[in-house]
Design a protein that fits this description.
375 residues, three-stranded antiparallel sheet, 15 helices
């Protein structure tokens, strides 16, 4: 189903790599006209395979920019500045992910942007934000989740484990979209745009109120210690006899009872309330799961109301019946020869699945100026 929630909204996207382009792709999915502005040499993502780190042409740049038109402008040249100035005056949203201060050096600091277009929603997405002692510090996802405390609480007791896909990159993208949509709603009332300072580290930090409150109350969270970090037998990941893995999330008493009954261990029901970390109980549940293969556990627990799910490998995800029913995984138009797979917007509308994204199109700046600035 094609969406037009943001029909008529014009978005300029100066961002590169993943977080900013993913944010503007979500806007494009909702009907916005997104134009990605790249330097003359192009977005560095064009020559990067983020999975293997190989250098060379790959589908990943075109995949995250599907549904957009892409132009190249030299914002250090008089011609590029003039074209960009015209586009800014006609835009509703500007998304950029430069380090703080770069837009000022280019002659398009926020005050200048506000002069050109008082209704512009300007979203500046960065690693650590526009102020503070680390504002100019380089970083990537692993650094931002480390700064927010998320990495320190993830993994086994002996070592933090990084997450994949990248938590801060996608959290920053989604926080940017939330902020931009809110600013557009506000502009509808006041006619004025907004300057949005979004940090990827902040976007993960915003999820930490539970952990920080627990700490303030004397209940310091730790890996393998707490209910949601591996300290509870009823909420964890377990290995099976054949080396597979399963997840169990039986927090509520009824789910834990259903699990215990299904594995013929009613004696474990009362032990759910044992103090954390439940090391002995975790060992017992581990031995239970190691007694059968993952396929056997799927057959045994798959229909039991106990919050069980096998840990799918990535090659199993597309074939899973639930994922198939939701219809989000599709071939990406324009990238069929590469085998590129798109995962569409993560919501249905009025009972309809999302429509495939159009292919990314490289176009000349004149096409956009004609469309946006002809009046």
């Amino acid at each position: 189903m094609s969406l037009d929630f943001l029909s008529g909204i014009r978005v300029l996207d100066l961002s590169q790599f993943l977080p900013g382009p993913f944010a503007t792709q979500m806007l494009a999915d909702m009907g916005a006209d997104v134009v990605k502005v790249e330097p003359p040499q192009g977005d560095p993502m064009r020559a990067l395979d983020p999975v293997t780190n190989d250098r060379g042409d790959g589908p990943y740049h075109a995949l995250v920019n599907a549904g957009k038109r892409v132009i190249r402008l030299d914002l250090k040249s008089d011609t590029g500045k003039a074209d960009f100035t015209r586009l800014i005056a006609a835009a509703d949203v500007l998304m950029e992910s430069y380090r703080p201060g770069v837009m000022d050096k280019l002659g398009f600091g926020h005050e200048r942007l506000r002069e050109l277009n008082p209704g512009l929603v300007h979203c500046a997405l960065s690693g650590y934000g526009q102020n503070g002692p680390m504002r100019l510090t380089g970083g990537h996802d692993i650094n931002y989740v480390a700064a927010a405390g998320q990495l320190g609480l993830s993994g086994a007791a002996d070592k933090p484990h990084m997450a994949y896909p990248m938590v801060a990159d996608f959290a920053g993208a989604m926080q940017s979209v939330t902020a931009m949509l809110g600013a557009l709603v506000g502009r509808g009332r006041t006619g004025l745009g907004a300057y949005l300072d979004v940090a990827m580290a902040d976007s993960v930090l915003a999820w930490q109120s539970q952990s920080l409150t627990a700490l303030a109350m004397g209940n310091r969270p730790g890996r393998d210690q707490n209910l949601l970090t591996g300290g509870a037998a009823f909420y964890g990941v377990y290995e099976t006899q054949d080396g597979g893995f399963v997840s169990l999330g039986a927090i509520e008493k009824i789910f834990w009872k259903n699990f215990c009954d299904a594995v013929s261990r009613p004696d474990l029901v009362a032990r759910q309330s044992e103090p954390l970390p439940q090391s002995d109980l975790i060992d017992e549940v581990s031995q239970i799961f190691k007694g059968r293969s993952r396929a056997d556990w799927d057959a045994c627990l798959g229909q039991v109301d106990c919050c069980y799910h096998p840990v799918l490998s990535i090659d199993e995800v597309g074939a899973h019946p639930q994922n198939d029913a939701r219809g989000l995984i599709r071939p990406q138009p324009g990238l069929e020869s590469s085998g590129a797979v798109a995962v569409l917007q993560a919501f249905w509308t009025d009972g309809q699945a999302p429509s495939p994204r159009a292919a990314m199109r490289d176009v000349q700046p004149a096409e956009i100026i004609k469309d946006w600035c002809s009046d």
